[in-house]
Amino acid sequence: MAATIEFALCSHAGLVRPLNEDAIGLDPELGLAVLADGLGGYNAGEVASTMAVSSLLTQLTDDLAAARATGVELDVARALSQRLVEMNATIFRAATSSSAYEGMATTIVVVWLIEGRLWVAHTGDSRAYRFRDGVLEQLTRDHSFSQELLDAGMVTEEEARLLPAKNLVTRALGAAADVEPEVHEYPVQPNDWLMLCSDGLTEMVSHAEIGAALFAALPDSQRAAQRLVDLANAAGGRDNTSIVIVRALPGGVLAGTNGAS
Length: 261
Fold this sequence. Notes:
Elements: E1 5-12, E2 22-27, E3 32-39, H1 44-70, H2 76-97, E4 105-106, E5 108-114, E6 117-123, E7 127-132, E8 135-138, H3 145-151, H4 157-162, E9 182-187, E10 193-197, H5 199-202, H6 207-217, H7 221-234, E11 241-248
Antiparallel strand pairs: 1-11, 2-3, 3-4, 3-5, 5-6, 6-9, 7-8, 7-10, 10-11
Helix pairs in contact: 1-2, 6-7
């Protein structure tokens, strides 16, 4: 059963970094989108992010196909968590077995529209947002040093943006032998826009500016994605910037677990 969605993708290396170590991927029929921001030495971040996105798309597709074949309802939260934990182990082994990949890791954020619900899984500071009725809401909470200081009330949001270690992530795939992904479920409505982004956007463009750009681009999600990348570059483009926008369309069904139409 095909998910009834529209989608837009846009990625740019920015104006400072020589390589784009972000990776993005989408399966429109399953309502599944993945974004990763690679970390590590030269080229290694690109390897980690690409590995994570391609593997997760394949593995989660296989999980859903297996559930449909047996008629057993897929435990989406368990599947997402298990696959991220397995991917963490794969990247960690690669990083510790080759000097070329030493220290490589990647953030990850996954959104899955399935059975009329939205599932979001992530590690790191790549984010998922929901844009509904002109209001932008951040669904993920950064796994980062600056976010921990914010949560503890030790710094303000403006101070957190200026911290020298603001980009230090506290969870990432491959950074340690074990990882604890965050997985959450949300209701979804027709015409919701779901946006995944790397921190190349959020470090350069404010929450209010992101919301205004999305609103101004309605109903053209590709125009919105390109506009956000352009805003990040206009503000200095200090990092790679990647955007995935998924819109749930009215009058259709989202991917199910039993293959019925």
